[in-house]
Amino acid sequence: MSHSPSPTLSLRWRLGWNLRNGRLTLYCGLAIVLGWCLLALCAPWIAPFDPLMQNGELRLAAPSLAHPFGTDNFGRDVLSRVIWGARTDLQMALIGVIFPFLLGTCIGAISGYIGGLLDNACMRLIDIVLAFPFLVLMLAIMAILGPGLGSFYIAMALVGWVSYARLIRSQILVLKESDFALAARSLGFSHRRTLFGHLLPNALFGSVVFCMSDAVLVLLNGAAVSYLGLGVQPPTPEWGSMVAEGQSFITSAWWICTFPGLAVVTLAMGFSLLADGVAERLGDRS
Fold first, then answer.
1. What's the structural domain count of the chain?
2. What is the DSSP letter of 249?
């Protein structure tokens, strides 16, 4: 007479199998990121107050039922500003990754495929950019261009492309000597078709995974430059600038810094888990 496994053992087995195959990590990261995306999209309907509305009578009010995250030094509802700030920070994380990804992918692919003098020149340029600390170089560019989101995106593109270029170049150097690349050239395919139609699609795996991990760094850098006053300018709600505004009240009104800081940590953890889960899942299929 056969006995069916107990529900507890079955649940443990499924959780262990999902954890080993990266599904649990992937689902947790995806849930966190999608949750913040949903909050950002529904901010006009979810946020209980106008994030810019000031109320002098409610300055530095502690968390309560009316204001679950309290109010800041201008009487603005912190919960509403955190929800609306998700729009700005998600935009910074996504756009701040897209431009370096596209620029670095094109430069790295062309450099690795052509080789020779062009490849040496690109590698020396990458060495020069890497010789400077990432955040210091980005702050220097933003100081020249002026504060604002546009300057942040330009600085991220000019500094962040080098990592993608190195990843793509190393993959192209290997793939261009493979059998399918030699077959494409022997069939008379153009260099553009061989590179962008056959080599590049097979070289994007590492860059796509790194792109998700890089979103964490972009998010933290965006919060850092806003904290320093070079990113998003007040009164626009942004988590880094909210932490900067509340630092003077950290002992008397801890909630002004705490909740935006937790939002940054939560979204960064979501992107990190998503990148790990995608890497494990795609690694199992490759």
1. 1
2. G
CA distance 93 to 211: 10
What Cα–Cα distance (Å) separates residue 217 from each residue in 7, 204, 238, 271?
41, 20, 16, 10
- H-run or E-run covering 29: helix 23-41
Q: Give per-residue pLDDT as tens, 118-159.
A: 889 999 999 999 888 888 899 999 989 988 888 999 999 999
Q: What is the pTM of this model?
A: 0.83
Q: For residue 14, is it within any domain?
A: no
CATH of the domain at 184: 1.10.3720.10
Q: Which of 224, 210, 222, 215 is nearest to 267 (CA)?
A: 215
Asked, for residue 30, whether it belongs to a domain, the answer is no
Q: Which domain holds residue 255?
A: 35-51+69-285
- 84 beta partners: none
Q: What is the pLDDT of residues 239-266, one digit of tens each?
A: 999 998 888 888 888 999 999 999 999 9
Residue 21 belongs to a domain: no
Task: Check if the beta carbon of residue 84 is closer than 8 Å to that of residue 237.
Answer: yes
